[in-house]
Amino acid sequence: MNTWLEQLRAWLEPYPWAYTTLVVCALLLAAWLANWVTKRVLLRGLRRMLNSLPLGGEPHEVRLRVIPRLANVIPAIVLSAGVVAVPDLPGHVVTIVRNVCTAFIILTLALAFSGAMDLVNQVYQRRADAHNKPIKGYLQLLKIVVFTIAAVLMVATLIDRSPLILLSGLGAMMAVLILVFQDTILSLVASLQISSNDMVRVGDWIEMPQLNADGDVIDIALHTVKVQNWDKTITNIPTKKLINDSFKNWRGMSEAGGRRIKRSLYLDQHSVRFLTDEELGRMHGFTVLDRYLNEKGREISAWNSDLEERGIHPVNARRVTNLGTFRAYVENYLRNHPGIHQEMTLLVRQQQPGSTGLPLEIYCFTRDIRWAVYENIQSDIFDHLLAILPEFGLRVFQESSDAGVTAALMATAALKHAEDGASPSA
Known about the structure:
alpha+beta, three-stranded antiparallel beta sheet, 56% helix
């Protein structure tokens, strides 16, 4: 081989640049060939071998991201080792080429490490409890450290100086580095607190009105937490905001298995009155009211009998009201509703009357926490209550509008028109 090269050099001696160009081309060809052999032969065989193994239940396809990137190191090594064989090349050119190749190898290794961390995160996310303890933020921090070290080594290699010289100057640059990485440091602390206190998980429904976030957490990273709102928009919340500002996490509702209904019926206070004996008899037709009416009847009878024995005026006697009976009906109706969670709080209560009427609040929990099912149950309950109110002699309060006046005017106009039409015939 050496004899052949000597003969080739002697033959091209009249053209010294030709021999140098030929050697450079051969070196580039060798680097390309090494890259091709590595990626097309070795990696293909490795991929087939891994695909034949039962790795994590996915034998069909194994995505190799780290090894192909590491394969780029081979041509750089070939160029770095072969550049010294190029004749008539100045020493500083050889040094530059070797330094650039070394810097490229360092960068390639850093990128391969980054790909490996992504692969680790993907494998970790397959765990059933991965959404409880996400590690993406920690892996991102590790990437930052690795790329910082790689940057120092690359600069030291390119300027052909020891990295210790650059590292010795970092002490004076700490203030600048802290200022530059301030958000990263704060985000890291926030991530640690969020993880240790189990404040947020992937899949949680959180509500943060000050940042217009109301939806499911889809990603927790070092610097940001992604929330997909109910209108399908994405809100990126800085991780440190979850520590500094307040937010609501609806995970407790999901884990408890009940979703709260808290809504009021606004009743017209003028419609509240005592029930007559005839109306009481009709109320016994409601099955859910039998027990209430019997107990209330015995209680009121005992009270009124005691008043009669003491000779107290009958105005002090007690009677059943339509509002109290309706309130008992609503409570017993909810107690027997299949969609209401009976092991959780269930209240039907009056609130402070106001200009909008007397609020009768229904406070209970549905068994199904799914949004659509929850809304259907809630709507069905209030549809029924609004429709059955007249049976108790109650009316819903509604602010007045000009509808009544308009109807009266139209009726008056129609009557006048009818009278005008009848006048000629009269």
